[in-house]
Amino acid sequence: MLNSLISNSKQRILALVYLHPDEQFYLREIMRHTEISQGTLHRELKPLVRDGVLSAETRGNEVFYSVNRNNPVYAELRGIVLKTFGVADVLRAALKPLRKKIQVTAIFGSIATGEDTSRSDIDVSAGYEIFKSAGTKWN
């Protein structure tokens, strides 16, 4: 959905850090989780840190990256990530075998209210038609 605005690599990076807001990741971890090459990862991380979307903390020889909750657009960006290429895409893929039966899906709980942590689960409700009957109207 946002491919014209945000590169696929940045989407994978943002999905990782916004789905794990309490964690810090070093470069090789991000590479492993996102399957992005080291050169591309460096190129994509640099403006995210420069613009304050991510925080970078150096410890020894490692740089650890995490979401910057102090960024003024943190809440809005988090919402975009979760609704477009974060949780929504993961759930869409997981529910794909049932797509013809599901009529509505909702994410609720701590992730929907923005109170989630790295230990939070994802609460999902899916609505579908259980009974089909010719001529019966459900209200």
Give an account of the 3D structure.
The protein has 139 residues and is an alpha+beta fold. It has one domain (8-128): Orthogonal Bundle (Arc Repressor Mutant, subunit A). It is built from 6 helices and 5 strands, in the order αβααββααβαβ. The protein has helices at residues 8-19, 27-34, 38-50, 74-84, 87-94, 110-113; strands at residues 25-26, 54-59, 62-67, 102-108, 123-128. The strands form 2 sheets. The protein has a 3-stranded antiparallel β-sheet. A two-stranded antiparallel sheet has the order 4-5. The mean pLDDT is 82.
Q: From the helix content, strand content and strand pairing, which structural class follows?
A: alpha+beta
Averaging pLDDT over every residue, what do you get? 82
- H/E element string? HEHHEEHHEHE
The fold-level CATH name is: Arc Repressor Mutant, subunit A
By DSSP, the count of extended strands is 5
List unreliable stretches of 5+ residues. none
For the record, what is the CATH homologous superfamily label?
Winged helix-like DNA-binding domain superfamily/Winged helix DNA-binding domain
